[in-house]
Task: inverse folding
């Protein structure tokens, strides 16, 4: 395995554990009836957002999905404001009016989660067009799931990005489930990255449960795009551990199936076993990071719980027509 700095290894673990604990906390409070609307959890897919965002700066853009907490946290958004937004509080990024599926933080290049399936393709592609027109050296990234690759916006975006050779990377989080439907029953190809061929686009498949492989694959994509060779398609193979949304009865699969797969694919477990076996990190270092995360999660939760809801008189403010 390539030599990684201790700082980068700590970043990998910190971000993955931070996302996991955040999601577990949100799940608990949603089931307790404390959170309005719906939430879609990123548990088990932490290596993708972490491995991708580790190579990005605040000047780079990402467009997210309805399952966007992990991307938001990995990109560096303020945890307190993320938690407050999910709780519907006025101290959240969107003043509590966007909720779980519409968190955005332009200050770190997070263009927003999106309640529309496939809604992020054209946002990320448009951002890449702006980058090229303004002759800047940053990039744009579109995170999306296997199900949204069947939407028209997917094909429109990839076609134009290739025609104009835009600095955009399409990251497909193939978690094998499109809501309640196995992707192989509605998708014409097993590897969604094969569709990149139709748009003369470079592509690569990585293990989405291995943060090292995601990181290396994305670095390759980033180098390719920054040379001006056009867009890149990165497919990260993973598995959706939780239901489509919290509360989903999951009648379409068994708990045993999920548990068996997660025991072999848990990205945090895989990372921990690797770094300890190869003596890249110590258990003490891992424990210190977990303690730090627990403190941050508690602070974010306290911030959200003690914040006010937006006043009803503000209902028509911050609307764009």
Result:
């Amino acid at each position: 395995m390539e030599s990684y700095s201790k700082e980068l290894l700590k970043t990998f673990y910190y971000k993955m554990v931070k996302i996991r604990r955040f999601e577990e906390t949100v799940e608990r409070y949603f089931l307790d009836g404390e959170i309005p609307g719906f939430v879609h959890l990123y548990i088990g897919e932490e290596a993708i957002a972490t491995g991708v965002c580790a190579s990005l700066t605040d000047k780079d853009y990402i467009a997210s999905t309805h399952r966007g907490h992990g991307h938001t946290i990995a990109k560096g958004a303020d945890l307190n404001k993320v938690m407050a937004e999910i709780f519907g509080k006025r101290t959240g990024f969107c003043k509590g009016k966007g909720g779980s599926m519409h968190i955005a933080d332009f200050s770190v290049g997070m263009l927003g989660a999106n309640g529309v399936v496939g809604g992020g393709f054209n946002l990320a592609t448009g951002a890449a067009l702006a980058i090229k027109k303004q002759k800047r050296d940053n990039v744009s990234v579109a995170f999306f799931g296997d199900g949204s690759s069947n939407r028209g916006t997917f094909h429109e975006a990839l076609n134009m990005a290739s025609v104009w050779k835009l600095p955009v990377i399409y990251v497909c989080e193939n978690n094998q489930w499109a809501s309640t439907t196995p992707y192989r029953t509605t998708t014409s190809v097993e590897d969604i990255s094969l569709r990149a061929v139709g748009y003369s686009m470079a592509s690569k498949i990585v293990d989405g449960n291995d943060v090292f492989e995601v990181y290396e694959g994305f670095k390759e994509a980033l180098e390719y795009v920054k040379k001006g060779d056009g867009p890149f398609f990165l497919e990260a193979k993973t598995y959706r551990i939780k239901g489509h949304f919290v509360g989903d009865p999951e009648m379409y699969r068994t708990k045993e199936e999920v548990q068996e797969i997660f025991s072999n694919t848990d990205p945090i477990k895989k990372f921990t076993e690797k770094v300890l076996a190869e003596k890249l990190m110590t258990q003490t270092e891992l424990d210190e990071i977990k303690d730090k995360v627990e403190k941050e999660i508690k602070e974010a939760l306290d911030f959200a719980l003690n914040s006010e809801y937006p006043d009803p008189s503000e209902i028509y403010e911050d609307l764009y027509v």
Q: What stands out?
A: The mean pLDDT is 96. Strands lie at 61-63, 140-145, 168-174, 177-178, 181-182, 202-207, 232-237. The two ends are 52 Å apart (CA to CA).
